[in-house]
Specification:
26% of the residues lie in helices and 32% in strands. It has one domain: Trna Endonuclease, Chain: A, domain 1 (3-Layer(aba) Sandwich), CATH 3.40.1350.10. The chain is of the alpha+beta class and 190 residues long. It contains 5 helices and 10 strands; from the N terminus they run H-E-E-E-E-E-E-H-E-E-H-E-H-E-H. The strands form 3 sheets. Strands 1-4-5-7-8-10 form a 6-stranded mixed sheet, with helices on both faces. It is globular.
């Protein structure tokens, strides 16, 4: 484009498709906010418990200089939906072939197992970034895989067979409660 002063403006833009999607946690937070605003469900991100050991004060601001984790956190999210207790962990992987079990800590697996055994709805949501696919895998199938396999990762084929593919939309971003409704609120995939 030429302007009267003779200045040329470069109007060609390079569009990068890297990181065009939001990260999984942000997508879930947006979804949960939608559920809250519509009165559909009350699902919250759990804060990680920390112990502050050193603070400095500057211009009426407290600045944390040193802190440590008080205890291991359980899972990322919990809440209520239609009288059902829901508890889940959200993870991403850049692998196109499997989800490393090292991404979930042993105490988190124990927590998921406890929720499942007490009739709560427990699951993990895993996003395979390279595949642009997000799955919901219920506790029953996660625990079954861990119990019956010596592998250190869950193959993507297991997700394709046992998990539910979550469609990404504008609003709600990742409607994982649609899966709960599809299975009638039970926590096991038939």
């Amino acid at each position: 484009m030429k302007y009267p002063s003779g200045i040329k403006l470069n109007t060609t833009k390079t569009i990068s498709y890297d990181n065009r999607g939001m990260d999984l946690e942000e997508d879930i937070n947006i979804t949960n906010q939608y559920y809250l605003e519509k009165g559909i469900a009350f699902i919250y991100k759990k804060p990680t418990p920390i112990q502050v050991t050193k603070v400095t004060y500057s211009k009426r601001k407290a600045i944390i200089k040193e802190a440590y984790f008080k205890e291991p956190s359980t899972t990322d999210y919990n809440g209520l939906y239609k009288g059902l207790y829901i508890d889940f962990e959200a993870k991403e992987t850049n692998s196109a072939t499997s989800f490393p079990l090292s991404n979930i800590h042993k105490h988190q697996i124990v927590h998921i197992k406890n929720i499942y055994e007490n009739k709560g709805i427990a699951f993990i949501i895993v996003r395979f970034n390279k595949l642009h696919k997000t799955y919901l895998l219920f506790a029953k199938d996660l625990l079954s895989f861990i119990k019956n396999n010596m592998r250190k990762s869950i193959p993507v084929e297991y997700f394709m067979e046992k998990a539910y593919l979550l469609e990404e939309k504008y609003i709600p971003r990742i409607d994982y409660l649609k899966i709960i409704d599809q299975i009638g609120g039970c926590y096991e995939k038939e």
